[in-house]
Amino acid sequence: MPLINAAPNNNGFYFNLYNKAANEIGCILKIRRFPKKRLHKMLNSGALDFYPGVSISKERSKYLYYLPVGFETAQFGITSSTVPEINSYSDIKKHKLTWLMELGSSKNEIAKSYKIETLKTPVVNIEKILKMRSLGRDGFTILDKEPIDYYLKENKLINYTSIGLKIHKHCCGGIKPMYLGFSKSSPHFKELINERFDPKRVISPINNPSKLDPNCIASKFANVLNKLSTSGETLAIYESYILNDFE
Fold it and tell me: H helices of the chain, where?
């Protein structure tokens, strides 16, 4: 949460946003939940239509077309409030922090390259950073902004300073658009040659060799998501999950 609840409860930002967008183009949203590896195999084959929030990679671009959700996301660093501002991965090493990260995290390679001490755990959350702090250990971790926002709401907190933590917003990539990944093998997807593609620039969601056929469902879905974002509805849906009642 707030993106999606624990299975089998599908409530959350994703369901409310995508269900509304689907209904507006005459479609019915069905949510199916599988382990991530299996999900990507199904997206590759077209057995699933889209993945709600996906990181961009060269490999995934072979079978996914990235559509803007109309919402900004980010990954922020979290430490004890006594730690100076962290603006880069090198600062983690500089301040002799132990990086708490999930087992199998892709960020392990970053930690290795900077020779940062790590502590691996099946799940990373605010509680574990608080526990490290209570044990007198200087810890650092990275979390998506959405669960960081949600923790404040669930615990009726105004900010993290009140519990002795600091959020570092400039260390880990900054704020960037969220994308969903639409399967290129889906029957609801069709692409055309993008005449505006610049081969001299890096391929990205805004510089793609192909573009959506305006008549396909994926294109209509993208248009509605853009409309919801522009009108402020997307942000309002998100804020309904994270704003404190007493604010």
Answer: 13-24, 36-45, 89-94, 108-113, 126-134, 145-154, 217-231, 233-242
